[in-house]
């Protein structure tokens, strides 16, 4: 008989329970089902289990087909009190003599504890490092379909993660079939192998744990600044190649999405390898945290890495060509490419020329800044209004489409769908606020925007897409608040607040419109 102690919390088929109940009533003619149910209830209460007597009645009559393992054990203990029955073997003999025998197939539960499934799944994943838990769930689902059992992949993945207490027995059988191809023929042998490889399994699980993507974005940004590399794709390729050497096969597209801030969580191994790449890129002796902080505050480099509108660059190129009728766009492209390379960025005049000709809608900020260096007397800071408000994928993917939310006094704001992690735009706004893009207008303004960043909803706040803004007064005192909406909409709203505050500061007699739409964090 299969021991119930291993799967203590499972529900077992009630055939053996009812057979033992019938045997008890035959041995005790004075007893009845009601009395037996009350006896079972008292026995369960003695071991700390509060069980309703009405449920016991239904289980004795067969109205409820299955019983918990503890209830079957309680019936077994009650039977052992009958004269002549002292052991489990005596119970089996008495059941056979009374014609109440229950076969092993009728005793086997349809569900097993996930504690039996997890070691097998972990062992299989360790032996197949290029396969994920998701791919294992797909494999099991397909094999169950061949057996006539339809279980979707998502519930299977939940089972393999240990987030359910029980699962179908067939899942355990399929895992044993998969392990048998690798020379593991039984569940007992699989458990022995798991015990031997406990350290490797633990390190494998640790590497695959999900962690917040915020730190990955911070380190990726620092690496891009240090290496003068605006492309997340190239960094994703480096990370993927490094992971493959450790038998971790993460998709290139997935890695790039994580680097661009499109996911909330990433694998711990990806963070580890990103940190290793960043340390290799830093000068000897430079601290990692210092490099991350320095990168977040490097205004020009942040703009260089960000996407900007290419139309103003084409206008500047036309202006340059008009002032130099004997020069061509090709010559200008060569000059801009050389300037960009002196700035530390890898590009060619063949890439630059279509941008100067107005054939490209967007490019990186370092191209804009290199173009500005060609104009004598022109400021070399890219105007903030020419910096695109979000990374390119957010404007192209359908599931990133904008939606309307209500903020403040019922005003409708356009809010871009977000993931709750900081994007390069957040760092850009913190280091290079929109209110400071125009140096002439910033002069003499006591109130200035310090930062606008993603934040958790304030107490009492509902919904998502909250941003925390900080306004500085004469560089000493600060005012902070929270506002709901998209990044662009919130930034504009805060700019209006700052403009009104500056106007009120200069001309006190003007009426002040209190920005009550904001909520204190």
Word description of this protein:
This protein has 521 residues and is mostly helical. 53% of the residues lie in helices and 11% in strands. The chain contains 26 helices and 13 strands. Strands 11-12-13 form a 3-stranded antiparallel β-sheet. It has a two-stranded antiparallel ribbon with strand order 1-2. A hairpin with a 3-residue loop joins strand 9 and strand 10. The protein is elongated and about 115 Å long.
Task: Summarize this structure briefly.
The chain is mostly helical and 521 residues long. The protein has 26 helices and 13 strands. The longest helix is centred in the C-terminal third of the chain and has 20 residues, at 487-506.
Termini gap: 62 Å
Unreliable stretches (pLDDT < 50, length at least 5) are: 1-6, 390-443, 507-521
Total DSSP helices: 26
Bulk shape: elongated
Reported for the largest beta sheet, the result is: 3 strands, antiparallel
Topology, pairings included?
Elements: E1 11-13, H1 15-27, H2 33-46, H3 53-61, E2 66-68, H4 69-79, H5 88-97, H6 104-107, E3 111-113, H7 114-127, H8 133-146, H9 153-160, E4 166-168, H10 169-180, H11 187-196, H12 198-207, E5 210-212, H13 214-227, H14 232-245, H15 252-259, E6 265-267, H16 268-281, H17 288-296, H18 299-305, E7 307-309, H19 311-323, H20 329-342, H21 349-356, E8 362-364, H22 365-372, H23 392-396, E9 403-407, E10 411-415, H24 424-431, H25 439-442, E11 447-455, E12 466-473, E13 477-484, H26 487-506
Relevant terms:
about 525 residues; disordered C terminus; mainly alpha; two-stranded antiparallel ribbon; 13 strands; disordered N terminus; 26 helices; three-stranded antiparallel beta sheet
């Amino acid at each position: 008989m299969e021991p119930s102690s291993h799967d203590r919390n499972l529900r077992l088929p009630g055939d053996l329970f009812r057979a033992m109940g019938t045997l008890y009533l035959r041995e005790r003619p004075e007893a009845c089902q009601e009395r037996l149910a009350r006896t079972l209830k008292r026995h369960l209460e003695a071991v700390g289990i509060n069980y309703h007597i009405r449920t016991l009645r239904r289980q004795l009559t067969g109205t409820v087909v299955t019983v918990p393992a503890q209830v079957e054990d309680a019936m077994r203990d009650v039977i052992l009190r009958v004269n002549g029955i002292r052991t489990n073997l005596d119970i089996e003999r008495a059941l056979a003599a009374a014609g109440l025998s229950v076969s092993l197939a009728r005793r086997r539960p349809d569900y097993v504890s996930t504690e039996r499934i997890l070691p097998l799944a972990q062992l299989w994943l360790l032996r197949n490092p290029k396969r994920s838990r998701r791919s294992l769930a797909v494999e099991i689902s397909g094999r169950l379909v061949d057996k006539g059992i339809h279980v979707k992949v998502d519930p299977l993945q939940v089972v393999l993660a240990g987030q359910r207490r029980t699962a179908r027995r067939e899942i355990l059988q399929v895992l044993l079939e998969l392990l048998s191809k690798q020379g593991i023929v039984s569940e007992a042998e699989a458990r022995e192998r798991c015990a031997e490889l406990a350290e490797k399994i633990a390190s494998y699980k640790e590497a695959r744990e999900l962690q917040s993507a915020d730190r990955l974005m911070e380190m990726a940004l620092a690496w891009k600044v240090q290496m003068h590399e605006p492309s997340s794709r190239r960094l994703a390729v480096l990370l993927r190649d490094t992971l493959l050497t450790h038998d971790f096969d993460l998709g290139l597209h997935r890695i790039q999405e994580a680097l661009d801030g499109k996911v909330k969580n990433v694998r711990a191994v990806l963070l580890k390898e990103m940190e290793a790449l960043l340390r290799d890129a830093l000068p000897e002796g430079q601290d990692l945290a210092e490099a991350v902080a320095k990168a977040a505050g490097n205004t020009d480099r942040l703009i260089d890495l960000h996407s900007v509108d290419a139309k103003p660059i084409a206008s500047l190129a036309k202006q340059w060509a008009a002032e130099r009728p004997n020069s061509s766009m090709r010559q200008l492209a060569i000059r801009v490419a050389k300037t960009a390379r002196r700035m530390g960025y890898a590009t060619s005049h063949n890439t630059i020329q279509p941008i100067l000709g107005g054939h490209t809608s967007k490019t990186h900020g370092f191209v804009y800044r290199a173009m500005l260096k060609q104009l004598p007397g022109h400021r070399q800071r890219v105007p903030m209004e020419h910096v695109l408000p979000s990374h390119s994928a957010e404007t192209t993917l359908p599931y990133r489409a904008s939606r309307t939310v209500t903020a403040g006094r019922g005003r409708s704001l356009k809010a871009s769908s977000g993931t709750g992690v900081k994007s390069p735009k957040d760092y850009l706004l913190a280091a290079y606020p929109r209110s400071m893009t125009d140096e002439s207008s910033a002069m003499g303004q006591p109130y200035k925007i310090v930062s606008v960043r993603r934040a958790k909803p304030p107490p009492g706040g509902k919904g998502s897409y909250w941003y925390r803004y900080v306004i500085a007064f004469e560089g000493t005192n600060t005012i902070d608040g929270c506002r709901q909406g998209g990044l662009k909409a919130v930034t504009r709203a805060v700019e209006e607040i700052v403009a009104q505050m500056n106007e009120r500061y200069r001309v006190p007699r003007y009426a002040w419109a209190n920005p009550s739409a904001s909520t204190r964090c």
